[in-house]
Each structure stands twice: as structure tokens, then as C-alpha cells.
Amino acid sequence: MLELLLLKQTDLEIDSINLSDPWGPSRHWSCGRRSQLTISGLRPNRSWIHKSSCWNDDGVRRKDKANQPGGGKLNDLEEYFLKNSGHRTVKWKHYLEIYDRYFSRFRGTEVHLLEIGVFDGGSLQMWKSYFGPKARIYGVDVDPNCKQLEEEQISIFIGDQSDERFLSYLAKTLPRIDILIDDGGHKMKEQIATFRVLFPHIDKQGIYVCEDLHTSYWRKFGGGFRKRGTFIEYSKGFIDSIHAWHSKEPRKLAVSDLTRSIYSLHYYDSLFVIEKRPMEPPSPITSGCPTLDRSRKPSSLRRLVRSINSRLK
Ligand SMILES: C[S@@+](CC[C@H](N)C(=O)[O-])C[C@H]1O[C@@H](n2cnc3c(N)ncnc32)[C@H](O)[C@@H]1O
Does residue 280 or residue 36 have the better pLDDT? Predict the structure, then answer.
């Protein structure tokens, strides 16, 4: 099922791991300068990790991590990933730092996390370990076999993320969603349907993450550069939405639920993070004393500049 090919590149670059179709016949994943990491409890093979330039045997960061905030110390997700002996999970290496940046505030709380795309259940176990015993982890997958991966704190729902009725059922059934991670089929219709139906149900202080945005550039997934209907193009509209308070063309751009509920939008390579927060119309503020005398007429100002310039010559 899984073919690995580790290609040594230059010292600064990252080894490549080609995962030939790990999730089904239609998916082929190949990595360029980035590296996608897999750890499987079923087939532990630590050489996959050892050959990555990010981590060595002791879990010490190498060159490519040394310049990042944190000074080379592994965060807890990176530690977990390195030592995982549970179910297999597949992530792009750089995601782990980004998750920690947004998710750490939920650790130790009764966080409700929904991940679309279960695969072998390894990421659900990772979330359980990271967030702690109060966390409630929900997984969604179209593959009915995934139901077997349920365990304490982890519930799994079988359904298709492009099916809006199924998504509405989820919204009604789950007590709360603080964090949603879309790591399912990565097709445009799937990502957009999931956002449309579930974003309004994310807690008002919650986080929405869409993974593997690069499929927006891949035809096989319905993508293409600047092609209408890709998730990337769709999400560019959110930039307009958060600025709608300032719109002078209300028929084209008006304050919406997105304007009132999105605090920030963060794009990384292949990863999109939205932070929710109840938003009020922005208010300008000022402090300090007036510094420049603006009572002079422009003509006298011009005269002043001319006389200064002539003295400087
Ligand atoms: C990228 S893998 C998930 C990896 C997992 N989140 C991890 O980090 O280890 C994608 C999963 O999404 C599932 N999937 C594909 N299309 C789907 C759809 N339309 N609805 C729900 N799940 C889907 C696949 O069966 C597969 O298990």
C-alpha cells in the first residue's frame, strides 16, 4: 500500500518522501523541497524520520529549524510525532509548528475538535494526547472501516464531506466544535461544502483549519491557477468580507456573518487558518498632542519649503 522513496537533496533542503497513493487510488502525493512525514504503529520504521533533515535521532532540531522561533526546541506535537508508536498519521512537517501556534490555548480544556479525514486514526490519537483527558475528539471519514478506530475520547462518524445534509446532521449532533480541521478528500467541492455548512457552527472563539490547499492548483482535484471555484479563490472572498465595515459599495460588499465572526485569516504553504472572534465595527483611536502646525495654507507651506531648500543649498 505504501511505497517510500527517500531522496537525499542538498544539506539545506529536506529529504523527500514519496507516498504513493496512501489514501486511495486517486491520490498521488509527491514532495518537492518540503517533506511529508508518516509514522505508523503498524510498521514502525524510524529511519523515515532519521533521514529527515528536521530531526535527528535525539529529536534535536537541525539547521532548517534553528532559525525558527523557539530556537530549535521541538514543540509537543513534534515530540509526539517523533515518538509515535500508535496509529499512523500523515502530515506535512511544517504543519506541526503552525498547529501548536493556534491550538496551544486549548490544551487541558474541554476542547471539542473535529477532524475530517481519519485515514488510520493517528492524528486523532495525536490530538487526544496533545489536548489531554478533557478533550473530545471527533473524526469523519467516508470509509466505513474507520469506525473501528473509535476509542475513549474519540468518536468517528462515517459520511461524505461533500454531502451538505450529512454535514448539517453533524452540526446538530456534535455538542460543540472549537476546532475544525479539514483533512479529508481535498477536492474543491468538498472543502467549500464543509466550510459553508460547518463554519457557522464553529464556536465564536474557535479555529477553522483547511489543509493541503495546494490541491487548489491541481486539476485532478478540481484546481487550477486562479481558476474560479477553487477553495483558494473562494477563500480570497473572505479578505473582502473582513473589510466590509469600510465598504462604500454596500450592494457589492456588505457586512455579513463572516465580517462579524472572523477575527483573522492566516495563509501558510498549503494550510489556511481562520480565527473566529465576535467582531464590532472598527473604531479609530488617537493619543498624544498635535505635533505639526497644519493651519498654514498650502501656498505658505510651499514658500516655507522653498526657503528651507534654498538655505540648504
Ligand atoms: C489525508 S487522509 C487523512 C489523514 C489524517 N487526517 C491524518 O492526519 O493522519 C484523507 C482521508 O479522507 C478521507 N476522505 C476522502 N474523501 C472524503 C470525503 N468526501 N468525505 C470524508 N472523508 C473523505 C479518506 O478516506 C482518507 O481517510
Answer: 280
Question: Which pLDDT score is estimated for 7?
Answer: 30
Residue of 94, 186, 201, 243 marked catalytic: 186
Verify whether residue 87 is a known catalytic residue. no
Separation of CA 230 from chain center: 16
Higher pLDDT, 21 or 288: 288
C-alpha 281/C-alpha 259 separation (Å) is 9
Summarised one tens digit per residue, pLDDT across range 302-312 is 788 888 888 88
Quick one: pLDDT band at residue 63, thresholds 50, 70, 90? low
Strand partners, 209: 181, 273
pLDDT at 60: 43
Domain annotation for the chain: domains and CATH numbers? 1-90 (no CATH), 107-283 (3.40.50.150)
Rounded CA-CA distance 28/19 in Å is 7
Ligand 1: centre distance to CA 184 (Å)? 4
β-partners of residue 264 are 275
| Ligand 1 center–CA 24 separation, angstroms | 9
Q: Is the pLDDT of residue 157 over 70?
A: yes
pLDDT at 54: 43
Nearest ligand 1 atom, CA 120: 9
302 C-alpha to ligand 1 centroid (Å): 66
Ligand 1 and 140: CB distance under 6 A: yes
The grid coordinates of residue 18 equal 514519496
> Quick check: 105 and 171 in contact, CB under 8 A?
no
Give buried/exposed letters for 218-240 (b at 16+ CB in 10 A, else e): beebbbeeeeeebbbbbbeebee
